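Pilot study result, target chain (71 residues):
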Amino acid sequence: MKRDSTLQPKGARSVGAMKNWRYIALHTAAAAAFIFLLQRYVLHASLESCLLWAVVIGGCAAGLAYSQSNR
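Predicted structure:
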């Protein structure tokens, strides 16, 4: 269901968008940090491998959070 944009002040939409970007950034950082720490200290992988997986999983988490925030 779409909201009628004439009923909302102009600033309300920008605040909502800022919350969405903050949510996406936090989701990305949390997923990347979790994967990095898991790979590095639990699985004892190399630093390069840990960073690569952190970037890949962080990107996937960002895409998922973006798609969820636009529902």
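One observation from the pilot: Residues 40 and 56 are 15 Å apart (CA to CA). A full batch analysis is planned for the follow-on phase.
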